From TrEMBL:
PRC-barrel domain location: 5-69, 91-145
InterPro entries the UniProt entry points to: PRC-brl_dom, PRC_barrel-like_sf
Pfam families: PRC
Family matches, as Gene3D superfamilies: PRC-barrel domain (2.30.30.240)
Protein name: PRC-barrel domain-containing protein
């Protein structure tokens, strides 16, 4: 299991040609912890942001992501449901509150299983200085509701 921040910026390779078709820029997932796919930044003026469904990913490695064919990349507008960390439905930086009203901090990253396509947990920060003295928190994945102001995690602490 790894954090998405370690995956961000990895090149996406097309298996049949060996060409780099873009770089991973965001992760797309459901509120129940299922990875739907990734946002890929492509070269070129007209193909900047594309959506890569998780089902089209053959391998997620430490040095790159392998897909069978670049034709599996879709317009990012085809990603309509779910959330991402940074893009249109981005939730990074929002306060995380438990179902019993306890504020945990701000969502900073997600832990996920690259081969299974599931979110395993969330990385929470209390700010730069608190992270230096106390470290970042990690909470297990739980269903959540994300609104404009906060993320409500359906768990109690």
């Amino acid at each position: 299991m790894r954090t998405f921040s370690h995956m961000k910026g990895l090149p996406v390779y097309e298996q049949k040609t060996g060409k780099i078709v873009g770089k991973i820029s965001d992760i797309c997932f459901t509120s129940h912890g299922k990875v739907q796919g990734f946002a890929v930044e492509s070269k070129g003026w007209f193909a900047r942001h594309r959506y890569l469904p998780f089902s089209a990913v053959q391998a997620v490695g430490t040095d790159g992501v392998i897909i069978k064919d670049a034709a599996c990349l879709q317009p990012f507008s085809s990603f309509q449901t779910g959330y991402s960390l940074y893009s249109e439905h981005g939730i990074a930086g929002k306060p995380v509150i438990t179902a019993d009203g306890k504020k945990l901090g701000l969502l900073e990253d997600v832990y996920f299983h690259g081969q299974l396509g599931i979110i395993g947990g969330y990385e929470i920060t209390d700010g730069f200085f608190a992270d230096l003295t106390e470290g970042k928190k990690r909470i297990a994945a739980a269903p959540f509701t994300a609104g404009e102001e906060a993320i409500i995690v359906n768990t109690t602490m």
